[in-house]
Amino acid sequence: MAAEIGRTASKHLSSECGKATSLSSPGSDVSLDSSRVTTTTTTITTTTTPPCRNRSSLATAQPAADNNQQQQQAPINADNVTSTAEAVTEVPGAIKTTINIGFAMNHVNDQENLKQLSLAPVQVNEVEEMDTQEETPNDGGGDGTDNRPINGEPELACIVQDQEMEEDEARSEATFRYTVENVSKMKDSQLSPACYVRNLPWKIMVMPRSSQTQERQPQRSLGFFLQCNGESESTSWSCYAVAELRLLSCKEGHELFSRKIQHLFYSKENDWGFSHFMTWQDVLDPDKGFIKDDSITLEVHVVADAPHGVSWDSKKHTGYVGLKNQGATCYMNSLLQTLYFTNQLRKAVYKMPTESDDSSKSVALALQRVFHELQFSDKPVGTKKLTKSFGWETLDSFMQHDVQEFLRVLLDKLESKMKGTCVEGTVPKLFEGKMVSFIKCKNIDYKSTRVETFYDIQLNIKGKKNIYESFSDYWCKFDDDVVSRCTKQEAIEHNYGGQDEDMSMAVKHCTNAYMLVYIRNSELENVLQEVKEEDIPQELVERLQEEKRLEQIRRKERTEAYLYMTVNVLLEDSFDGHQGNDLYDPEHALYRVFRVRKQATVHEFLELLSDSLKYPIEQIRIWPFSQRSNQTCRPTLIEPDADLQKPIIDCAENHNPWNVFVELVPPDSDMTALPPFDKDTDVLLFFKLYDPKNKKIHYCGHHYMPVVAKVQELIPILNERAGFPPDTELALYEEIKPNLVEKIDNLTEPLEKVLEELMDGDIIVFQKEGDNEMYELPTCREYFKDLFYRVEVTFCDKTIPNDPGFTMELSLRMTYDQMAKAVAQRVGTDPYLLQFFKCQNYKDSPGHPLKCTFEGTLKELVSYCKSKIKKLFYQQLSIRVNELENKKQFKCIWVGPSLKEEKEIILYPNKNGTVATLLEEAKKQVELSENGSGKLRILEINCNKLLPGPGDDVPLDNLNSSGTKLYRIEEIPNDELHLAEGELLVPVAHFHKDVFSTFGIPFFFKIKNGEPFPKMKDRLLKKLGVQEKEFEKFKFAVVSMGKPQFIIDSPDYCIKIDDFLPRFSGQSTSPHRPWLGLEHVNKAPKRSRINYLEKAIKIYN
């Protein structure tokens, strides 16, 4: 097979861990033939997601070679050590479980290094190998090197020479010494002068320590520790480092004594080392060579990661900024950095038209925003708006995903968004490759070819340590929001495979997991073209700048929020259409929202209203809403003389937000000011009209009335408001509180006597007198009583994850049948084809199903709901719910005769049925073979191994799937229906290396006693349907009681049926059944089959 690589090929081997790394560096042009990759100078961008190192070794050190007692000692914190026998414990939560690290080369200035390129041999599969050759660059003049920065931006001043690097306080490593004088008289701990690494002060801490030996004899030792940021009062900082603590020899020819540590330094553990670095006797022994003139010299070599939680200026030290991690978005951060450095793609993204896009749903606009901030921002860039544009919920950002899968989904989305624009075709132009597969006959002139396109190819990289012999000395490491410089060794050797033979000085050395991006040398000019500010459309720049301006305003508002309060203003039109109690629904009202300083006076607020509503102050009156003791909320008066000069927070009685009704002069009125209102003699009344025919409430305005006015004086006013004839007889009711509306019978009495506790804001409900009994709710009393029992219920489809559902307003007095009919009408189905489920008390998920014979009311179903939103779940059925309740749901696996694919099926046999009835039910759902036996059997599957299933007469109640045990139904092959003498059905399972590492689809296979092994293999090959070349790699074993006995693949070997007969062992009451194991490589993705948290990655918008 020959393959032609396009411009970019990418590979991701593993995504099971939380670490993702981006590398940018000089690379090579790649072309593939049947077994080789040739390389020339070009640029490689690499994204890796290596498996994270087990952190249990963080507090351990390499043992000393010459001291058995000291070999068992681990580095510890100086403040927490009292004896040599102390245990070392990890700091809970001190190390992130998800770490995002990326590398991108800062600059390429070393031309000699660029000339020397060699790729490590890479392995395509077990047969073919891909090696590399070094070729002379031939695409340009001169020495063939390109010294442009990889991201097309100006060269950075932070590239310095080695001598300058040693004096740089932001450097990643350093070696420093401290000489202790008068050692024999030392009693207290001593600290060396500070040496700055990663802008943090590091000091040597040395002290004498006393302890007891195992024989409980007193012993004195030298305590040697490394302290980081010891004088800082901050508690939020942390810095991961590895170090070698050395005691130097004063004699020529004597070796120094050293120990290594690795630790996450933070405020509570800011020093780490050994309380018993060396016995005091050995330190003072002149023959050992460590002391001279009563002095010893201690040395530390430390390599540190960039710190977190301190003021680390990534832009200053590297010229780049990082991306904030939302929880588990390290894989995404790594990929975004890689795409950002693909300058041609960045240019194309900038040119995508997004002027009319919704800023919260546009993926293209969100990606433009991220790229723009990465290019121009001085601080780490957030990605929440980007993931929100994907349509992701908060939980999605805490879920780990495959970076290769995410790349494909994102590129597909970008490609579709670019269609019909000036940048259409950019994605395939950059990332699409072509592969030519051909078959060529040796003896005749025939050749068959097939061309396939791809965006990524799979390569297995061998564990070679030295990939490139020479690169630029300085690299940049992208660790989420922190970007720092690192060495070539850390960037290449410690992120590109290899074995960690010793605890090396590399920080967080991880291996083997990559997405490699190759850029063809001939396309270097295009892909890495410089991205200038003028390449960004001006309208995009203006939009992003406006977003930043608004964000700054919002940030300022949040900062000053304690000085302000919110006033929600309701005008009279806000009361129109309200169908409930009181005048408005607080959750759905149309407020005019004002942000007012708390110490502003009411009069100043009136001036603000006047300016906003364009009404003079004398045409405005404020009526704050206040909560009454009877659970109602009604307007009350602000006294003009006493309250206008009060601070608004005092009038609001510290309520925030503060809801007020603002009365205005009617627009069609000739009045120049509102009529006067006397709080002692007048009352403010509101009116509602009830229409029994349509079961509707209509708001009819407000009116000032003298408290001594008779009720009948309201009749003409109400008829006029309702548009009735003046002599229309009306029935008047007082709305007292929810579920309490009383009729006013005596219309000749004054208001103050008729209305209960007459107050401003009282509500009069009226309707026509007459024959209203024909209606379902003839009076407003019945209407409000019915309203009291009405509740909004959300129904969610149980079969759709995170289904938002739909909301219906139902009566709590509804029966099950009434509820089912209402929901069925909403979803368009039969009520008996719906099954309902209660919502669990403390978990937003369906509980037990409701029986269709439930005799209670809706109130009993939702009264336990803790949240204000009442929720029920439902599912649509294929059989009637009354039939389903007499059946049992049974989930199992169905596998066809080819043994290639499994699928889950759900059966509904009768509750009191047996396995036989279950198999009959399965026949109705599955597709049987055309010439098959037509008979089914049930088997047990446990950890990809097979066991015989229960008999046909076993009751279904005895079948329980639990843990890893599943049930599988399959059609019995014709040759397994009847077994002759000397034949046996044997379970067969696949495994790799370990018999407990089973995988794939197990099955039964018929063996014959005395059958030659090659003949059995031929039958097995036919049953499996795999390629003969692949089958040759299989090994065969008889596995009994967890131990494999491999079969010698010899023509003379014959199958012995006795090897597979069940046998008893030890105290076991049931026989152990041997099985035939097929040992070979598992080529399926190594991901958990049952992982309820992990789901396919999607971009919804």
Automatic annotation (TrEMBL):
Keywords annotated in UniProt: Hydrolase, Protease, Thiol protease, Ubl conjugation pathway
Bias (Low complexity): 22-49, 59-77
Residues of the MATH domain: 173-302
Domain of life of the native organism: Eukaryota
PROSITE patterns tied to this protein: MATH (PS50144), USP_1 (PS00972), USP_3 (PS50235)
Keyword Protease in record: yes
Enzyme Commission identifier(s): 3.4.19.12
InterPro entries reported for this sequence: MATH/TRAF_dom (IPR002083), Papain-like_cys_pep_sf (IPR038765), Peptidase_C19 (IPR050164), Peptidase_C19_UCH (IPR001394), TRAF-like (IPR008974), USP (IPR028889), USP7_ICP0-binding_dom (IPR024729), USP_C (IPR029346)
Domain USP: 321-690
Molecular function as annotated in GO: cysteine-type deubiquitinase activity
Pfam families: MATH_2, UCH, USP7_C2, USP7_ICP0_bdg
Coiled-coil stretches noted in the UniProt entry, renumbered to this chain: none
UniProt feature, compositional bias: Acidic residues: 128-137
CDD domains: MATH_HAUSP
GO terms classed as biological process: protein deubiquitination; proteolysis; regulation of protein stability
GO cellular component, one term: cytosol
Reactions accelerated catalytically: Thiol-dependent hydrolysis of ester, thioester, amide, peptide and isopeptide bonds formed by the C-terminal Gly of ubiquitin (a 76-residue protein attached to proteins as an intracellular targeting signal)
Stretches the record annotates as Disordered: 1-77, 128-149
Family recorded in the similarity comment: Belongs to the peptidase C19 family.
Protein name as it appears in the record: Ubiquitin carboxyl-terminal hydrolase 7
Organism lineage string: Eukaryota, Metazoa, Ecdysozoa, Arthropoda, Hexapoda
